Amino acid sequence: MRALVYDGQLRLESHYPGPVPTGDQVLLKMRRAGICNTDLELVAGYMNFHGVLGHEFVAEVIDGPAEWLGQRVVGEINVTDGTCDLCQRGMPTQCRNRSTVGIFQHQGAFADQLALTARNLHVVPDAVSDDQAVFVEPLAAAFQILEQVKFAPSDRVVLIGAGKLGMLCAQAIKLTGADLTVIVRREAQAAMLHQWGIKTALQVDLPAARAQVVVDCTGTPEGFAAALDLIEPRGTIVLKSTYRGAPQADLTRIAVEELTVIGSRCGPFDVALRHLKAGLIDVEPLIEARYPFGEALYAMQHAARRGAMKVLLDF
User: Structural domain of residue 197, as residue ranges?
Assistant: First the structure.
């Protein structure tokens, strides 16, 4: 099968060994996949990754239990043992023995086929297109913020990092009725957010220490420093992106101003699918380009362009 592989060098292999399902795994045939910043970070050295990339996808079940055959599905990326103490305490995404699709010790979705445990799968409703389904994984991550922070309509919320994930997080937070402003750097970002009724601003135009919640989707030290400037004492900062390396941060301010810093990762797939089905989240404007899988290397180059939005791979 074809597979996009990284082992110190990124290449598209045409005869990569196909997966053989074991245990409660089913075999998936890829339909569409999306490139995210994590894929680009892995190629840049994050996690010392080696293997098949990709974790945002929609696929068809081609081998497995009868009730799954032919189903169009998306898949959660954390493959857990279900038995460790964290799993037993209701925190499977933090399983002590987890592997992560396309990120850690598990083949990714940038291949013609993928073997994945059936318990990770969610059936895609007919009303949700393949293009929309590709966004389920990052959209679920966006809704995880709402699982962790209880927004009040009176809260002043600032989101930093209006990229692919930031745009989804902004739409999710808007549903709470909070007073949301997104910091933008480009006119195209502002135009997209305005069409969803979301306010935008430059950072210099926002008052310091006035936001009750700041969501940092940048994954950069500069983004976290900006969050510290914008948050009020005893406010909450949500870190929504991974960092490359070990950035420095002013931890004294966190202690003195009694700030709460929340790391936020994967989220509820069922919530994401329900909101897509209901038309409450708009993802199509985020699609910047699509490439046939045979041109995956060009697609990765496109996705790495500064300010690029979602790039899709068609199988």
Answer: 141-263
